[in-house]
Model the fold of this input.
Amino acid sequence: MRAVPGSYREAWTSVTGNRNLRFAQLSSLSAWTGEFLFLSAMTVYAFDQNGAAGVGLIGFLRVLPATIALPWLGALADRVSRRRLLVVACALRALTAAGAAAAIAQPAAVYTLLTLSTVCHAAYRPVLAALFPTLCTTPDELTGVNAVRAILDGAAALVGPLAAAALLAAYDPAAAFAAVALLAGIAGVLAARLRYESPRPATADGPADRVGVVSDVVDGLRELRRRPRALDVIVLGGGQCLVRGALTVLAVVIAVEVTDLGRPGVGLLWAAFGIGGFVAAMASIGAAGSARLGTLFGAGIAMWGVPIVLIGLLTGSAVAVGAFVVVGAANALVDVTGFTLLQRLVPDQTLARVLALTEAVFSLALALGSLAIPFILSALGDTGALVAAGCLLPVAVVVRWAALRAIDADIGVRRDRIVLLRRVGMFRLLPVPVIEGLAQRLGRASVPAQTDVFRKGDPGDGFYVVESGRVAVIDDGREIRRLGPGDAFGEIALLRSVPRTATVRALEDTELATLSGDHFVSAITGFSATSSTAEQLVGGYLAEDRQRQAAPEAPTPTAGTLPPEERPGPDAGSPGRP
Done:
């Protein structure tokens, strides 16, 4: 039995049943387990070498170089194979981590290698996020895949630090860095096993026509200006990262000064954060079928701030722990819906560089939040700082609520169009970026009853899908096929570059979704599976034409002249032909 859209079973089945998604998610799990292990081992090594100053230095080296590199790495990911870039990034990560393990007695060399290792890993998440839409065939599947990724990230956040603790207790940071290298290598091997067709050739314009990488980065910034709804998502997400950076400092204040949890309470609070995130990531799988991703994203942003305000107003250990559970849940909701929105609002051609720019903005926001909160604490005190930090996000959501609802309206329209397109057999295997692009380009045409959509011999310039009503395919005065809602026609002339091979006439008032010939041909011929399906369909229709010509029958009245009780039933299962 087929799972209900958006259910847990369907989301997990989409990952385990899809070879590419299975390898991609396992690669992500390995890479992020290594990242959390890396973070723990790196800070312990820095503290052993240079105390708190060393931890601060390594924190700076993690943020700034990676932030500077991200826009360039994103531009590169829009130029070359994203699979190849993932493999190279994992390989370099493995080499630098292994080098740090080998040079453990030389702090300067280790710090340099750890910085390079961080830069290598920085590209992983935005490149994989840009690749996910190509591996999915429906937007609902994409949301479910992002939810599964959030769940696996939660597992990595638990397993990585535990592995670091075990290795550091039994051996030293060198062993932990070697384990990071092993996990990075595994992630690269899994990424290398991905097999897919890109929505566009990586060198579609040819090397001579490509502009420089600097222009690509600038174009990524321009893309955000052209996509104000995506920019809203990034700005609100940046605000959330700003507050998260503040919360890394505030967690210590909450545990030690606001409540009686004490220093061990810092770990308890973040454990509560992790529990909330894991539970919410599981629950967010149910959002896969939702057209309200924008308002869900806004709700998650607001939920990030409100609990922090409550900690300041209602001091108490239980309140603080419960608040961190809610904040963790909000974080998972923001993560799943935010990435899904960007994947759907930004074209595939510039998606990697936009996601990389997003990661850069988020990293800077985290750093700024951590740097700013000590000054806010000094000026406003514990309660004032908690209330001020917590109020920022709900206020921002209220200000941009209309924009979030506009995102939902846009996605709702696209959803209806995608459902219509998916009823056409040739389109069912198209990846998400392509079907989203077609949905955005769909036009509409109203055809009155007994009016020809086109006639035999007309030039082929469009593809049509019946939204409502019925049409007849007529050849030499004889009706050969009827088409109803969800059926399509017009592909022969477009794929064979010939005039229309038959007349199509509306039997009743009919609404058609229209697609230009260029966009139709580009989508169909760009993928082997869809091209093969289309060729089989066209070949079948042309074979039928030859059979009719070889054994002609007496012309019959067209469908429009027959009384309803004598008209043949609709052939709902087959698309059109002319």
